[in-house]
Amino acid sequence: MAVLGTLIAAVPAAPATAPHPAPVPMQPGTPETFALRWGNDRQTQARMLREAVNPNGTRVTMGSMLDAANRNARTQNNAGCRNRATGSGGALQGVPFAALYCLNSQDTTDDDWTPQGISGTEDAQPGAGTVDRHKAIVFSWHEGPPGGSGMGTRLSFLDTATNRYIHVLLVEPNEAGNDYAEVSAHAGGIVWYQNYIFVADNQRGIHVYDTTNLLQLARNPKGSTSPQCPTGRQPGPNGRYCGRGYDYLLPEIGRWNNPNSSTTRYDSMSLERNPDDPNFAPVFITSEYRTSRVGQVVRWNNTDMTSFRNTIHPVRAWMQPVRYVQGAFSRSCYYFNTGGGGSGNRDLVIANATGNRTPRSQIGGRGLQDLYWLRSVNQLWTLTEHAGEGNRVLYGVTRPACP
């Protein structure tokens, strides 16, 4: 993986930060207040759509899509990328990162889209953590500025061997399975698990996608990649399938709807695996963004989350140690990305769920978001949301020891 390594240059100092209010010891939460109810089921329609759109209805592999990645990212080995990210005004000024990616200039400065969630193939699969022999990071975007959601949600898949990435537009099939529309979701957190991608959506719950239904419009006589062609099947008997310029689309198979939307939230997601214990079943983690009080971090069985039926409930919940949680992850203890908004540096908070121990924190990037554990190198990865050269990066830090 070309990006991975140790910090190769001194990091310019930045004023020290600390979460406010100060982190408090974690306490047991109330798992009974959380529930997710399966609905908007489109599993059959997504399959029908793939059969209608792709030539001969063939399945497009994630590997072939990654091979077609058409945008170049740069790593910390590129002086321009590193200096802008760590210099005065950069998202990582004073942040002790282990590795980073800068996106291309168009995506770095585009304020029409805002990056949010992060996951990867090491969530998707155990062992080597590869999909179709590729290692990749996936990150989500919602259309519109930070804090908002426009009519549009997309994923970006970054191949860590080539440092190339590609955008994929998320769509929802119609009931007939022969057309589709765009999805509007905040996409604050994501998990790639097996062939599924889960996308958190605030009070509404979690959207689910199946990568085996990937739609390919590029080099498809039934598709068009013209940016002027609006999303969906165009009128007429020979109307082409479009996605406003995207080469690939991914249709939704359903949603875990939140029946308690007035009291609970799904603002970020992660997956906990234990590579040292083959009997440890992966656990989904969801967390809440709260401004006037601390929210809860909640644990879900992987078999429940992939059942796609009925109503499911979490197995455990804890009160988070801080407000403004943008991302949460668990491995022996809990890790939280936190910040009160704005453009200042935020913090990574490390806390134990038991023992009433005082949490610790370390400086994080400006505008940091969701969390992903790259277990092969024991790094916690996140991304920063603000547009501008040096402001929008993906980066990893060595996972701190538990308190």
Layout of secondary structure:
Elements: E1 36-39, H1 43-53, H2 62-67, E2 71-72, E3 74-75, H3 79-86, E4 99-102, H4 105-109, E5 113-120, H5 121-124, E6 136-143, E7 153-159, E8 164-173, E9 180-182, E10 190-193, E11 196-201, E12 205-210, E13 215-216, E14 223-224, E15 232-233, E16 241-242, E17 248-257, E18 268-272, E19 283-287, E20 296-301, H6 302-305, E21 311-312, E22 316-319, E23 325-331, E24 333-338, E25 345-351, E26 360-366, E27 372-374, E28 379-383, E29 393-398
Parallel strand pairs: 8-17, 14-16
Antiparallel strand pairs: 1-17, 1-21, 2-8, 3-4, 4-29, 5-6, 6-7, 7-8, 8-9, 10-11, 11-12, 12-17, 13-17, 15-16, 18-19, 19-20, 20-22, 23-24, 24-25, 25-26, 27-28, 28-29
Describe the structure.
With 403 residues, the protein is mainly beta. Helix content is 9%, strand content 36%. Strand 11 (196-201) and strand 12 form a beta hairpin. The longest helix has 11 residues, at 43-53. The chain is globular.
Figure out the total of helices.
6
How far is the N terminus from the C terminus?
A: 30 Å
Shape: globular
Radius of gyration from the alpha-carbon trace, in angstroms: 20 Å
Low-confidence stretches: 5-11
**Mean pLDDT score:** 93
How would you characterize the largest beta sheet?
A: 13 strands, mixed
Helical content, roughly? under 10%
Proportion of residues in β-strands: 35-45%
Structural class: mainly beta
Question: What can be said about this structure in brief?
Answer:
The protein has 403 residues and is mainly beta.
Looking at this protein, list some descriptive labels:
about 10% helix; globular; about 400 residues; 6 helices; mainly beta; five-stranded antiparallel β-sheet; 29 strands
